[in-house]
Amino acid sequence: MKSLTLILFLNAVESNNPKSDQGSVGGCSGVPGIPGSPGHNGLPGRDGLKGSDGMKGGKGDRGDKGGTGKTGPKGSLGQRGSMGPIGIKGEKGIKGNLGERGEPGPQGENGTANSINWKQCVWNRSDSKDTGLIQECVFKKRNSATALKVAYAANMRVYCPGGTCCGRWYITFNGAECSGPMTIEGVLRISNSRDDPLRHGQIEGLCENIPTGSIRVAVHVGNCQGYGSSDRHSGWNSVSRIMIEEYPQSRN
Known about the structure:
This protein has about 250 residues and is mainly β. Helices cover about 10% and strands about 35% of the residues. A hairpin with a 2-residue loop joins strand 4 (about 165-175) and strand 5.
C-alpha cells in the first residue's frame, strides 16, 4: 500500500515538471485522483429585466355572493331640496263618523235680536232743488257687525220739454256714498215729453261695513252720468220719509 501511494505521488510530480516531460519517452498516464469536495454556493445574482405584460386572461367565473356587511353609521342630514310641483288632486275620502258632542261653550254677549234698532224721519215739504241735499236723518248705530237698511220714499219728477233729461236720487252715510257692496240710488229719465210727471217713487238698499256711533244718513239729488242739469222736484204735495234699520249682517 505504501508503494502504490509513492508511485502515484511520483507520477503526479513528474506530470507537473516540464523538464521531466522533455526527457520521458512513452510514459503511462497516471490514475485519476480522488474528486475534491464541492465548493460553496456563489452569491445570488442581480434581478433580471422586467418582462413584458402577458396577454389578458379570459373572464373568470362569478364568485359566490359575499355575506351582508355591517350597517354603517348614520350620515349627516343633507340640505333641504327645492319644493316639487303640486301633485294631482287625490280622490275624495270616505266620510268619517260623527264625532262626540262637545261641552257647551261660554255664554255670549247680549245681541240685538230682541231689541230692534230702527228710526224714520218724515217731513211734508216740496223741494224744487235740482242738485244737492234734500234731507238728513241722524241714526245711532249700536253694533259694528250689522248693516244699515235705508229706504227713501217721496214724489219725484224730472222735466225737460222737447229734450231728454235724467235725475239721480242717492243715499249718503256721513257724507259718503255706500261702498259695501255698492251705492244706494235711483234714477228717473224722460225724453221728448211736455208732461210734468210727478210720481211716487222709492229707493232702498243695505249698506255694510259702517262703524258704530252717530251716522248722518242723507238723501241727495243730482245729475245722471252722461247728462247735464235739468228741472227736478222732490216731495211735491205729500209726506216724504227716510227709514233706517240696523240689520243683521248675515249672508249665504
